[in-house]
User: Fold this.
Amino acid sequence: MPEHHDSDPTDTCRIVDANGTPIRVHGTGDLDDTDRAMLGEIVAAAQRRHEQEQEQQPVTVEQAARTCPRPGCGRRKAAGHYLCTGCWWRLPRHARLALSRKDERAVRRLADLLDQIRMGVPLHKVRVQP
Ligand SMILES: [Zn+2]
Assistant:
């Protein structure tokens, strides 16, 4: 008869307290002070990273600037591009040509494009002023 794995002393899982944060630890034997300090460092680093991420949350303008504006797309787009590559190539050729021109009406064309995208105009039906 094989023994139960429950009684296997090499496969234990314990909760260890590291600087007030419980950590699940696999293995045998007690942690010495060095192990405990190392775990504390890992936890502290993870908490710092988490806090930094929370602080960065308000900077959604940056993220929005890097996300395709078409509702439901959500793909990343390159900086300075109006749409992600996939959506861009679904625009009619005349729209792409017009939008590629950088003149005094470029901002107006972009606004036209974004308005239509927000209203749900299919990409291949988008009309942009020349
Ligand atoms: Zn897209």
